[in-house]
Amino acid sequence: MVVGLFGGSFNPPHQGHALVAEIAIRRLGLDQLWWMVTPGNPLKNRNHLAPLAERIALSEAITTDPHIKVTAFEQAFGVSYTANTLARVKARNPNIHFIWIMGADSLQTFHRWQKWQEIARTFPIAVIDRPGATLSYLSSKMAKTFDFARIDEDDARVLWKKSAPAWTFIHGPRSALSSTAIRKAAE
Asked: Which InterPro entries does the record associate with it (predicted)?
C-alpha cells in the first residue's frame, strides 16, 4: 500500500489544501492520503490557532475523497515535530510505503524545520506547486541540498519505490487560497 502523509496546522483548512491532496492522490497513485492535522506548529504563532477539534471537523467537511483519512494522531503520539512523527509512523507501519506531501510554499522554509534533513532521509517527498512558490524547487535550501535526489515529475508514480532521499516537484492547477489570508479576512 502507498500512503501520502499530508501534515499541517490547517488553520483553517480550505479548498487549496484539498486540491493539493487530490493532485497528490492522482499524480502519485496513492492508495490513501493521511491528512494529519497537527496540534500546533512550532514555527507559527499559536495565538491564532483554532482548537484542534474544530480544525479536524473543518478538514473532514472539505475532504470528500474516500482515499483521504483525516487524523490527528500526532497529538496522541505526544510529539511536536514532524521528524519525530514520521519516525513513529515508519516504526508502526513497516509494510506501508509512505510519501511525505508538502505544498511548495512549505518548501521555501523547510530548512527551518527541526531535523529537516532527517525528514528528507526518512520518506520520499512530493512537493505540490502553490501560487508564488513555483520556483522554490530551484532556489530552496532543501532543493539545493538534495538536488541529486530529485526525480522528474513524469516519474512521480514510482516515487514510492525510491529510497529516501528522493523527491519530486509536481506542477498542476493551483489555488490562491491561503489560511493566513482567510484568518486576516475574518478579523
From this structure: Cyt_trans-like, NadD/NMNAT, Rossmann-like_a/b/a_fold
* Residue 30, burial from CB neighbour count under 10 angstroms (0-12, 13-18, 19+): buried
* Grid-cell match 473543518, residue found: 58
Q: By the 8 A CB rule, do 146 and 103 touch?
A: no
Q: What is the DSSP string of 90-102?
A: HHH-TTSEEEEEE
Taking alpha carbons only, the member of 130, 167, 132, 141 closest to residue 28 is 167
Residue 62 grid coordinates: 472539505
Q: In what order do the strands lie in the sheet with 2-8?
A: 68-71, 32-37, 2-8, 97-103, 125-128, 167-170
* pTM, entire model: 0.89
- β-bridge partners, 62: none
Residue reference for cell 493551483: 174
How is the chain split into domains, by residue range?
A: 2-186
What is the predicted pLDDT for the residue at 39? 86
- In this prediction, residue 20 carries a pLDDT of 94
CA distance 23 to 57: 22
**CATH class of the domain defined by 2-186:** alpha beta
> Is residue 185 a contact partner of residue 12, using CB atoms and an 8 Å limit?
no
pLDDT tens sequence across 85-109 = 999 999 999 999 999 999 888 888 8
Neighbours of 130 (CB within 10 A): 23
Amino acid identity for residue 177 in this structure: L
